[in-house]
Backbone:
C-alpha cells in the first residue's frame, strides 16, 4: 500500500479482496479491450473476465442491467436490453467493479437483489464502444451503486474509477461522450483529458440540453479529480474565449452551439470550474493557445 498513488484519497476499497475490477467482453473483442498499457498502479486487483456470449453468464448481464435501470430510471433514460447487446457489448465492452455477492452490505443487497448463486455482483458499469476513427471511442454509459446509496455507505470514486479502469484497460486515446448539462457526471467526464465541446445544444438527442464532448485521454490529469487542485496547466495552455455558457439558459446553449458551428475554433471547458462550481453555474468557455 506504501506506493499506492491514490493513498489518502478515501479509495482503500480498491485493495479489498472481495471487490475486483471486471470486464464483460465477447472473446473477439478481448485483445482490443485488454491492452493494459504501462502500469498505473491504480488497480491493485486483477480483473475478472465475463463473456456476454456464454449462457451461464447471463446472470451477470442481468445484474448490470438491473443496476443501470435503477440508476437511470429517474432520468427516463434506462437502457433497453437490446441496446445493451446490439450497441454495447457487440461493438464494445463493459468495465466496472464487482463485489462478492456474499459480502454485499444488506442495504446494497436490498437495492440490487442479486441471486445468491452468483459469486460476483457488479456495483458499477462503464460501457465504451469504438467509432470509425482509429483509437477513438464513445463512452456510452456510466453508473455506480453510489447514486443509490446514502453518502456514508458509498465507495468514494467508484464512478470515476470505473471509467478510468475501462479507458486504461483498452488504452483509449480519444474518448467522446454524451451527457446532460447540470449532470453530476460532467464533473467526472471532464477529468480524463482536455474537455472539448462538440455540441452544446443537441436537438438530435432526446434531451436537447445535452453536451457532446471529446478528449484526448491524459493519465496525468486524472489525479486532479481526487486532489481537487487547480489545473494551472490548463490556464497556461488556454485563454478565455470571451463568453460564458449558462446551463440554465437554452438561449445561451444555442448561442454556444452557433459559435461551434461557425468552425475555425475549438472550445473547451475548464475541469477545475466544473469540479468546484455548482452544477447550474455559468461556465467560462476557453480556446487553445497551442494551434
Ligand atoms: C454520475 C455517477 C456515475 C457518479 O459516480 P459516483 O460513484 O457517484 O461518483 P464518484 O464517487 O466517482 O465521484 C464523486 C464525485 O462526483 C461528483 N458527484 C457525484 N454525485 C454527485 C451529485 N449527486 N451531485 C454533485 N456532485 C456529485 C462530486 O464531484 C463527487 O466528489 P466530491 O464529493 O469529492 O465533491 C453516479 O452518480 C451515477 O451512477 N449516476 C446515475 C447515472 C448517471 O447519471 N450516469 C451518468 C451518465 S453521463
Residues:
Amino acid at each position: 500500500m506504501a506506493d499506492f498513488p491514490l493513498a489518502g484519497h478515501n479509495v482503500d476499497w480498491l485493495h479489498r479482496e472481495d471487490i475486483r475490477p471486471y470486464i464483460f467482453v465477447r472473446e473477439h473483442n478481448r485483445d482490443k479491450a485488454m491492452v493494459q498499457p504501462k502500469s498505473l498502479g491504480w488497480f491493485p486487483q486483477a480483473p475478472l473476465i465475463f463473456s456476454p456470449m456464454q449462457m451461464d453468464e447471463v446472470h451477470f448481464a442481468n445484474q448490470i442491467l438491473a443496476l443501470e435501470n435503477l440508476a437511470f430510471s429517474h432520468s427516463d433514460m434506462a437502457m433497453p436490453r437490446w441496446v445493451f447487446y446490439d450497441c454495447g457489448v457487440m461493438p464494445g465492452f463493459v468495465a466496472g467493479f464487482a463485489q462478492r455477492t456474499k459480502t454485499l452490505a444488506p442495504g446494497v443487497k436490498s437495492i440490487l437483489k442479486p441471486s445468491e448463486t452468483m459469486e460476483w455482483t457488479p456495483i458499477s458499469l462503464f460501457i465504451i464502444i469504438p467509432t470509425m476513427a482509429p483509437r477513438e471511442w464513445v463512452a456510452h454509459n456510466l453508473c455506480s451503486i453510489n447514486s443509490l446509496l446514502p453518502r456514508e455507505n458509498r465507495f468514494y470514486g467508484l464512478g470515476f474509477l470505473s471509467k478510468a479502469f475501462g479507458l486504461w484497460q483498452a488504452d483509449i486515446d480519444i474518448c467522446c461522450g454524451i451527457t446532460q448539462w447540470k449532470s453530476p457526471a460532467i464533473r467526472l467526464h471532464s477529468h480524463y483529458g482536455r474537455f472539448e465541446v462538440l455540441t452544446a445544444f443537441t436537438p438530435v438527442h432526446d434531451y436537447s440540453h445535452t453536451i457532446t464532448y471529446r478528449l484526448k485521454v491524459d493519465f496525468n490529469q486524472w489525479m486532479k479529480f481526487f486532489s481537487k487542485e487547480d489545473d494551472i496547466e490548463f490556464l497556461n495552455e488556454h485563454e478565455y474565449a470571451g463568453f460564458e455558457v449558462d446551463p440554465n439558459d437554452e438561449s445561451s446553449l444555442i448561442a454556444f452551439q452557433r459559435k461551434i458551428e461557425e468552425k475555425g475554433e475549438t472550445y473547451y471547458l475548464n475541469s477545475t470550474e466544473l469540479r468546484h462550481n455548482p452544477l447550474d453555474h455559468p461556465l467560462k468557455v476557453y480556446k487553445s493557445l497551442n494551434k
About this structure: The chain has two domains: 1-172, 173-291. The chain has a mean pLDDT of 96. The radius of gyration is 19 Å.
